[in-house]
Structure formats: C-alpha cells, structure tokens
TrEMBL record:
InterPro entries: Apaf_helical, NB-ARC, P-loop_NTPase, Plant_NBS-LRR. Residues 117-212 form the NB-ARC domain. One of its GO terms (molecular function) is ADP binding. Keywords: ATP-binding, Nucleotide-binding, Plant defense. The keyword NAD does not apply. It comes from the Eukaryota. GO terms for biological process: defense response. Gene3D superfamilies: Helical domain of apoptotic protease-activating factors, P-loop containing nucleotide triphosphate hydrolases. This is NB-ARC domain-containing protein. It comes from Brassica oleracea.
Amino acid sequence: MGGCASVSVSCDQTLNQVGRCLTENANHIHNKLDENVETLQVSTQELKVLRDDLLTRVFLEEEKGHRRLATVQRWVFEKIKKVNVLKSRSDFRVVAERVPRSKVEEMLIHVPVVGMKAMAEKVCSSLMEDEVGTLGLYGMGGVGKTTLLTQINDIFVNTENDFDVVIWVVVSKDQKMESVQETILWRLGRFSEEWKHLNEEEKASEIKQVLKVLFTTRSKEVCSEMLVDVEMEVKCLAPDEAWELFRMRARDLTLESHPDIPGVARKIAGKCYGLPLALNVIGR
C-alpha cells in the first residue's frame, strides 16, 4: 500500500510529553559525553604519571651502570604507538547523525479501557482497504474517541501493516492549518523550501495523495464536510461494559468493604449512561 495514516487529537498534553522526552534524551546524551571525556582525561593523566615514574626509575638504574630491559623499552614503544593511533583517529568531521524515527510512535493510555477492542479492529480493517482514503469517527464529548484513536495507533505498533508511517497530529480550535500541514510534511520527510511557496490548498492536495486520514469530531456534519469515505459513530458503553469499567476504577477492595456498596455502586454507574469519561471520574 505504501500509504500513511494520520490521526488527530486535542492539544497541549502530547506536545508537553514530546518536549519533555526530547529534553530528557538530550540531557542524558550530554551528561554521558561529559562523563566519558572526564574519564579519558583522568586515564590520560594516570598514563603520563606512570610513564614519568617508569622513565625516572630507568634513568636512575642507568646512572648506576645498568642497562634498561628490552621489555621496558617495548612497553614504552607500544604505549606511544597506541597514543599515535588514537590521535590519528581523532579527526571527527561528523560527530552526530540523525536517528531514524519509528514508523509508529507508541502512545500511552492512562485509564482503563473497556469495550473498544472490536471497534478499534474494525477501524484498522477499514483503513487497510484501498478504496478508503478518509475515515471519520464522531461521537459526544467524553465517549472515548481519543482513547479509541490511541488504541488504533498502538495496533499499528504491534502488528505488521503496509503503512510507511503513522502520524499523530495534535489539532486545537485556534491552530492554523499551515502548522498542521508542516507537522505532517516534516514527519513525511517532504518539507523543503519549495513547499513553503505552495498555498494551503496545494499542500493539502499533495498530502492527500500520499496518506490516509483518520480523524475524530463531535459532529457528524463534520464528517460530511470532510467528504469521508467511511464514518463511524463512537457510542457509549453497554450496561455490562459500563459496570465493568466503573468496577475497575472503584476497585474490588472498595466495593467489597460493605455489603450495601455494590448495589449503590451499580445505581451510580447506571446514572453515567455508559459515558466512559463519567465512569472513570466518578468511579475513581
């Protein structure tokens, strides 16, 4: 297939995680380099001290009319030879290289997930069909659209697929279309000076030729405006699934602490009407 999947979610948390990850990695590399340089300096100084001590002892013995041993002469010669080899290899024209990014970056799910596996697999199956280029997921706020997207993303992490890259794009209400397009182009490795001179429509046309789009929205009308090939509604959980999620959040230790609690808890879970966000918040 050779296409790409692009997923779109809301906003600052992902950017903060990416920034923190990059900063931590950079600090780790910098600290490790400093540590290695310090170790090299200490070892070099120790070698110089050892050399000076040995030469002093040799000169003192020679003053007494003794002749230095061939083994000592060979040791000094070998050390000088190794130092010269190291010096010859120290002309580093290139000191770093770009690390290739994974084709799919795993996303973490921070809440229990119930009843979404079948839906996630259905979406993945649709994306693999040649005639599907754009797929929209719609549903009310808190129904778990972002969690579903995360599951779909991680399915591509753990299973073989024909996509060259999976791109997770963060989109907010105030975000400019240009920044979204640039994020996608950078991830595709296609951003260049000539791209800067294209307008939004031209960039969109080029992007659509090489990737498939999966997005979420609260509005079914948005799916129509986006001219999606497939639209799927993300629905609230069935009663049994809702209770399972509520129980996972409340934990059995709490539910079993008094005989009356399970019955009351089921009534509270029922008032959430299968909305995962409500079940997660109230159950906790």
